[in-house]
Amino acid sequence: MSSIEQTLRRHIRQSLPGAAEIPLADEQSLIDSGILDSIGVLSLVTWLEKEFEIFVEDHEVIPENIDGIGALVRFVEAKRAELGLGR
Questions:
Q1: Which residues of 73-84 are buried (b: 16+ CB within 10 A; e: fewer)?
Q2: Domain ranges, ordered by start, for the chain
Q3: Which residue has the higher pLDDT, 58 or 16?
Q4: How would you classify residue 22: left for phi > 0, otherwise alpha for psi between -120 and 50, otherwise beta?
Q5: Using CA atoms, how far apart are residues 35 and 17, in angstroms rounded to an integer?
Q6: Which residues, 6+ apart, have CB-to-CB distance to 18 below 8 Å?
Q7: Closest to 73 measured CA to CA, from 19, 37, 20, 54
Q8: What is the pLDDT of residue 20?
Q9: Is the CB of residue 40 less than 8 Å from the CB of residue 16?
Q10: Per-residue pLDDT tens for 11-20?
Q11: What pLDDT shows up at residue 16?
């Protein structure tokens, strides 16, 4: 498990209601599971930017990028790679 994944899992479990009670598979939908709602998305994006030193464009806030641990890890890694930052 990468440090990005560990950090994401810890944050999601601690800050999103309901996340601590269920196991989170890599490709499990956070939206369909009721863990992530519209307010949660805004909070998560703000946290991602601060925690991983990235900027999330409005058009990037789509399920393919944020709806699951695996999607989030891939998205953060890609954004950091664009900036020349390590994992």
A1: bebbbebbeeee
A2: 3-82
A3: 58
A4: beta
A5: 6
A6: 33, 34, 35
A7: 54
A8: 80
A9: yes
A10: 999 998 778 8
A11: 84
CA angle at 31 for the pair 34 and 24, rounded to the nearest 5°:
80
Q: By C-alpha distance, which of 74, 63, 68, 54 is closest to 4?
A: 74
Q: What's the pTM value of the predicted model, to 2 decimals?
A: 0.91
Q: Is 55 or 85 the better-scoring residue by pLDDT?
A: 55
DSSP class of residue 60 equals G
Q: What ranges in the chain are assigned the alpha helix state H?
A: 3-15, 38-52, 63-66, 69-82
Report the C-alpha gap between 60 and 49 in whole angstroms.
Answer: 12
CATH code: domain 3-82 is 1.10.1200.10
Is residue 78 within 8 A of residue 34, CB to CB? The reply is no
